[in-house]
């Protein structure tokens, strides 16, 4: 038998406080004698502890009003970062720290941001970064052990969670996780030698769970975010990886992907950092996604290039952004 239907009209609850309805003895706030501190709660769970009252619709409205206000705010962003792995988050941190005036949206396909940076190599915990990348760790506030030419963060999750918390604390940065970039917004930008040249003007998004089912459901159209600059850090090739650069190839904007090469730590990390750049107008590529464009080596379980590629991507973005503003 189905549960009893609601028996009272669903009046809009006030934004700010408890839901008061005739016949529903719901009082706002907790009684004065209720424990308010952890010390006061300890061992008094039965006597003077209870949660303040709530109505389910208040929870729903607290979430939905914020989320849809964010969608409205970031529908026009200054910069969109695709992929919240170590490179994307490092990029966001540098932008958030330097430019509180810019609206930065991060689109992350997974429910859990962080990409491949929750563990070191082969699921081992420790994370290695070669110097001088420890300068970034110091800036973010991640403790490390100094081993001479490299440093070690005792658990990769300490790095990723600390960086993530710093990024999420910036008021001008919004993380849209469980959300996939399914395509790029483009505008014609022809030159005499490249009549079909385009520039990137934002991203096309959908819930990741929707993106995974386009083949077995009828058309589920996407949403969009306009932005004059997109920074793609979607990692090396894989189910979701290297998304934006693969799209550039399919749009004929770059001829082909050179493909990530074999592991060579000493070659790979410098190449990724130095190669981080605007690949086509309006799209900067960093992190391991870049290895697919340039045919750079992979570095395996060292993460210094990811963070410094993020530092460079942010620097490139601000130079481009400010130059465009000057030329407007
Ligand atoms: O961690 P990744 O995969 O990418 P990076 O470049 O930030 O860091 C790479 C690093 O973890 C390594 O691969 C290390 C250094 N190993 C190297 C080696 O030789 O093996 O993060 C990419 C993020 C992920 O969280 C994806 O879920 C996300 O990007 N993503 C997307 N998000 C939104 N829309 C998409 N289309 C999309 N594609 C990937």
From TrEMBL:
The record describes its post-translational modification as: During the catalytic reaction, a sulfide is transferred from Cys-219 to a reaction intermediate, generating a dehydroalanine residue.
Designated name of the protein: Thiamine thiazole synthase
PANTHER family named among the record's database cross-references: THIAMINE THIAZOLE SYNTHASE (PTHR43422)
User: Might you name a Gene Ontology BP term for this protein?
Assistant: thiamine biosynthetic process
What Gene3D superfamilies is this protein classified in?
6.10.250.2840, FAD/NAD(P)-binding domain
Question: What cofactor requirement does the entry state?
Answer: Fe cation
- Any Pfam family: Thi4
What is this enzyme's catalytic activity, as reactions?
[ADP-thiazole synthase]-L-cysteine + glycine + NAD(+) = [ADP-thiazole synthase]-dehydroalanine + ADP-5-ethyl-4-methylthiazole-2-carboxylate + nicotinamide + 3 H2O + 2 H(+)
Residues bearing the modification 2,3-didehydroalanine (Cys): 219
Positions of substrate binding: 87, 108-109, 116, 181, 221, 236, 288, 298-300
Q: What class of enzyme is it?
A: transferase
Gene Ontology cellular component list: cytosol; nucleus
Textual note on the cofactor: Binds 1 Fe cation per subunit.
Family label: Belongs to the THI4 family.
């Amino acid at each position: 038998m189905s549960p009893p239907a609601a028996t009272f009209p669903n009046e809009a609850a006030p934004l700010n406080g408890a839901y008061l309805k005739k016949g529903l003895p719901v009082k706002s706030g907790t009684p004065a004698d209720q424990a308010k501190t952890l010390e006061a709660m300890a061992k008094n769970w039965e006597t003077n502890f209870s949660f303040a009252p709530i109505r389910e619709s208040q929870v729903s409205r607290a979430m939905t009003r914020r989320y849809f206000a964010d969608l409205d705010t970031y529908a026009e962003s200054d910069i969109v970062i695709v992929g919240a792995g170590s490179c994307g988050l490092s990029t966001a941190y540098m932008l958030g720290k330097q430019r509180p005036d810019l609206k930065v949206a991060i689109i992350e396909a997974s429910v859990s941001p962080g990409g491949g940076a929750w563990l070191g190599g082969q699921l081992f915990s420790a994370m290695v970064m070669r110097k001088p990348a420890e300068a970034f760790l110091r800036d973010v506030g991640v403790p490390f052990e100094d081993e001479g030419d490299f440093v070690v963060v005792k658990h990769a999750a300490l790095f990723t969670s600390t960086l993530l918390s710093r990024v999420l604390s910036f008021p001008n940065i919004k993380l849209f996780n469980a959300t996939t970039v399914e395509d790029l917004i483009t505008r014609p930008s022809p030159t005499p030698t490249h009549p079909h040249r385009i520039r990137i003007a934002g991203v096309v998004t959908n819930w990741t769970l929707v993106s995974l089912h386009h083949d077995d459901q009828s058309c589920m159209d996407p949403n969009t975010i306009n932005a004059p600059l997109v920074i793609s850090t979607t990692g090396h090739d894989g189910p979701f990886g290297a998304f934006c650069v693969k799209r550039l190839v399919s749009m004929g904007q770059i001829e082909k992907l050179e493909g990530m090469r074999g592991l060579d730590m000493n070659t790979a990390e410098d190449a990724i950092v130095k190669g981080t750049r605007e690949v086509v107008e309006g799209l900067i590529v960093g992190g391991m996604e870049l290895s697919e464009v340039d045919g750079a080596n992979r570095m395996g379980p060292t993460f210094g290039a990811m963070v410094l590629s993020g530092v460079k991507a942010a620097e490139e973005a601000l130079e481009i952004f400010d130059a465009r503003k000057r030329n407007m």
